[in-house]
Amino acid sequence: MxxxxxxxNALMEDMEPRLIALRRSIHQYPETGxxxxxxxxxxxxxxxxxxxxxxxxxxxxxxxxRMGVPDKETLSAHAKAVERQTGTPLExxxxxxxxxxxxxxxxxxxxxxxxxxxRFDIDALPMTERTDPGHRPAREGFASRNPxxxxxxxxxxxxxxxxxxxxxxxxxxxxxxxxxxxxxxxAEEGARGARAVTAAGHVEDVDYFIGSHVAPTGSLDxxxxxxxxxxxxxxxxxDVTFLGEAAHAGGYPEQxxxxxxxxxxxxxxxxxxxxxxxxxxxxxxxxxxxxGGRNVVPDRAFMQVEVRGETTEINEYMERQAxxxxxxxxxxxxxxxEITLAGQAEGQHSDPALIARIGxxxxxxxxxxxxxxxxxxxxxxxxxxSIFMNRVQAHxxxxxxxxxMTPMAGAQHTVSFDMDESVIGKSVKVFCAAALELMKGENx
Length: 444
Fold this sequence. Notes:
Elements: H1 2-28, H2 37-50, E1 53-56, H3 72-83, H4 95-98, E2 104-109, E3 115-121, H5 136-139, H6 155-171, E4 179-185, H7 194-199, E5 208-216, E6 225-226, E7 228-230, E8 234-243, H8 259-270, E9 281-290, E10 300-309, H9 312-332, E11 336-345, H10 352-365, E12 376-378, H11 385-394, E13 398-406, E14 408-410, E15 418-419, H12 422-439
Parallel strand pairs: 3-4, 3-5, 5-13, 7-12
Antiparallel strand pairs: 1-2, 2-4, 6-13, 8-10, 8-11, 9-10, 14-15
């Protein structure tokens, strides 16, 4: 196995400049959930060239299981923009991708053995990136060119990591036994995409599932690699529309049904939901839009709400409370209320047995990397990788969600985000070594 690891390191050293260039290309053209058309086309092209069996569109995601899909006008406008963007391989930009069926899965069959799935999320955030020279992507010419979109969480690096893993796995396939699935997942932000991939059945046969995220050096972990994490908050994202009846606010106010007032009542009540004694819970109203003029009783209001819970059960409690409050606030004003589930993730934990194997592999075969002292560290926020992990664990498979550390110029989910790109090479080596450990034959 040591000889194969040496080959992995040599291959990684050779391809590192190409992967950094790829990361910067993806960073320059970020795409939010279900709009990852250029990104998916690039992944499709590269996996096909390497010789993988490639699934895209409705083969990769179940269309009916998608949440928070942009409207047809937005999809069409973005597809037209992608056609004009540098580096888009148009022959791999499929009609289904143009309709918001993004995401790509690459499959390599290496004969009898376990099924190992590796997941890489690919979407950006709806943010406007800094453009001043103090921000390296702006200074060096690879800042976002897509208005209102930015890779502010590191998923651009995840794309590069995944394609680096794909290249090395193909190069060492004669030493692998089993099947590799590379899942390039759309719409992680907002917890929208994993459910659509799992609904298409892609993890039903998976024995080992591994994902990872770049993370800031120093603030969370004390090494290069944390082999497992637990505790991501379960969450539900709700789009709420209040429908009332317009009226002249001065002449006939009694004829109106005030949707804005219903929404405002709901906002106050939502933030007063009793917290659960069983663990942490969260609620936030992030968007509220209503009304059209000061002399008109508003007939429509829209808000975006999220709830979270330390466990799936606590989150379900918070969601039930939120739905009841919105319906009740609407009823007080004689309004209707429409609630759409726009995203969802579950509670998450990594399996100790898989954490131990990953940690042992890093320690024995990647001595240039250090393991964090806490190898099953607490996660915060929410992550829909939980959907994959829980599904694999439900049928007896093992799952782990790793972190790989890197210095960052700005915090994740901020307009100043950037990272030390050496994390790409570190992550590729960890994924490849872990896959080799799980799929090695008796004589490897």
